[in-house]
Amino acid sequence: MEKDPGPDVLLELHGTEYTEDNSYWYKIEAWEVEPSKEIPHGIRYNLTLHNNHNKRIMGFDNAHAVKSRKKGRFKGRIIAYDHLHKSAVDKGTPYIFSSAQQLLNDFFTEVNRILSEVAQ
Questions:
Q1: Strand 43-50 to strand 56-61: parallel, antiparallel, or no bridges (unpaired)?
Q2: What is this structure's pTM?
Q3: Pfam families, from UniProt (predicted)?
């Protein structure tokens, strides 16, 4: 069985910054850490999109815990480290990390969606 190249690709992208034609820009930070309960996949990451005023408007990261926003009796009991900031004011929405490749796919899908909305 071949090794999954996703983690290596994500780690190689560490430090990447790219500015779009409209001056929106994204940054990728990713580094290997010892796997833990909080970061079982062993990759610490911060993938962010910034507007032309340098304000983060979207991002995926696992730098801090966020509570689940489920309604009902068990509201807020699930703590997640992998999460998505859907806007500049979003404190974090849990994100299910399935693989480094999927994280990159999800990030660039969101980047492309936001940039296409801005272009309209």
A1: antiparallel
A2: 0.86
A3: TumE (PF20126)
